[in-house]
Amino acid sequence: MLNTLIEAFALISTWEVIIAMLAASIYGLVIGSLPGLSATMATALLVPVTFYLSPIAAIATIVAASSMAIFSGDIPGALLRIPGTPASAAYADEAYAMTRKGEAELALGAGVWFSAVGGIAGTLSLMILAPPLAEIALSFSTFEYFWLAFLGLMCATLVARSSPVKAIAGMFIGLLVSCVGIENPGGVPRFTFGLTDLFGGIEPIPALVGVFAVAQVMRAMLTPEPPPIPRRKFGSIMAGQWRLTGKYRWQMTRGNIVGIIIGVLPGAGADMAAWVSYAMSKRFSKEPEKFGTGHVEGLIEAGASNNASVASGWVPSLLFGIPGDTIAAIAIGVLYMKGLNPGPTLFTEKASSMYAIYLMFIIANILMIPLGIVMIRLASHVLRAPRSTVMPVIMLCCAVGSFAIGNNMFGVVTVATFGIIGYVMEANGYPVAAMVLGIVMGTMVEQAFVTSLIKSDGSILPFFERPISAILATMAIGALIWPVLLWLWRRLRRGSPAPATSAR
Amino acid sequence: MRLPDQVTGSFLVGLGLAAAYGGWLLPPVPGQPIGPNVFPLVIGTGLALCGLAIVFGIGHTFEEEEEIIPIEAGRAQAPTGKLYGLRALLPPALLLFYVAAAERLGFIITAALVVYATATALGARWRLSLPLAVLAPIGIHLIFSKLLRVPLPAGLLPMPW
């Protein structure tokens, strides 16, 4: 054990690894903070670079870039209400509301501090809990996956500050969008209207960029320029974080744990971790009415959650070659390329390499604090730039970023279309976040749903028979019924206000 | 663009029914009762039901009016003309223009036009929007084409790098 640890230290203390990590960290911070460029895209673009590096340095770049990008997605979310990565989408509104209240330092400081804590917690889970957790997830069949995805989708209605019916409608629209293409159980072109560009389906990232970025530029066209933000230097970014850690330690721990669990589960990554944790934070908060008005609590829990999931997403990847999220899916490709084939034997035969990965995760998350503070100070210049210079550059980033995802002009058309859809939906009280979740998770939901139905010969009974499946089903149905109960309760209370007051 | 709930709800009913019908028309997998048609059927039905609920105003009480930041005294109110609302369509229109023109004109020229139009529409004077239209495309080109190797179209004005 000690020998392996020393070996691991020797592996990572070469100049190649150190420089690769620093460069990848800066790269990840910049890409993550550019709206429309997700952490997954940052990682994917790194793959060609890793061809020229040693195995450990190659993994170092991926570890560093993905962790940094997930954090720095919080920066434009807080300053511009445009999440830099989908993982920050759950709480971009909240962070932006804090900035408007003049608490930008607190929001961004909470982002960097709780991201680092979350990342380290995720790494600890990777080290300690990897085998047993992976075993639990392994015993899941498509029935459990279906309920898990369903639960994730129901979260969209819980985070919404709107009518739950409209949130569910938005979710269905998103699922409908994910139906497009030939990637379905029959492999037939579905809802493609004869357009070859639609055969591959609608890419989630251009759709996200459209809904969050283009729609924002569209709104800017109609609203008067907001009052200029007073010229001020950022105060201490880390000030008060220690106090917040003490005050919200339970929320932080819960965020870490939820992030770890969601990261381990295949297919669900940082974005879902953030959504679930934000919804959880709101539901269990002592002051839920403050959510959406610039309250730091949800930010802490979701920020701690999404970074924890990045590290724990590697658990099933390393053990079984099953990607925990899209970043891990790319990482698996690099692992194979570098002769570190995933499997349980990796932990015995290449133990020093595994320890090197743990160490790199911890170093990357510690490095995140100083580099993140520098990045925040640089990025905050965006606040002082007039809107008429920021928005055109955002437009260009939208066009080029969505083109870059598939080197395909159709991505730009998708961005424009979803800009309009997002704008109209938001203007009419339909939460776009619910639609986004539907788009991102649609394929997974359908696969789990259809495979389960085929296995059960069309019967829905097996969906409730397996023990874990039954637990997840109860939770999911509870989440579905919750708004109905709330509505009935409000109805009853409003219908008979007199007895309610006399009873007190 | 605030439409009455009845309008958006009816639209969703139509969309849901169309999706369900479209899913129903899909060919099933031979010898398999469940194919690509099941999911759109479920989604379409759900969407249509939600649309109906919205038409009848169920869940409306949950909606919170978005708190609008009060415009300070002395600031100009947004002009409200009939065509004013159409300005919102400018960004998507510019993106479609980019799709149509980028191959022929090249990235730099198309991007410069997009930047100039967006900046001007947001109220920038030519002294600001003109240099921005020159510098922003070059900067973006440097990052994406040089650093990230995105094959941006060269067109009429290829960059020297």
E-strand count of chain B: 0
Q: Looking at the structure, what is the overall shape of chain B?
A: flat
**β-strand amount of chain A:** under 5%
Question: Roughly how much helix do the residues of chain A carry, as a percent range?
Answer: over 70%
Mean pLDDT level of chain A? 78
Description:
The complex is a heterodimer of chains A (504) and B (161). With 504 residues, chain A is mainly α. By secondary structure, chain B is an all-alpha fold. Chain B has two domains: 62 residues; 85 residues, no CATH class. In chain B, helix 4 runs antiparallel to helix 5. The longest helix of chain B is centred in the C-terminal third of the chain and has 22 residues. The interface between A and B is large, with 77 and 89 residues.
Features:
heterodimer, A: 504 residues, mainly alpha, 75% helix, globular, disordered C terminus, B: 161 residues, 2 domains, 5 helices
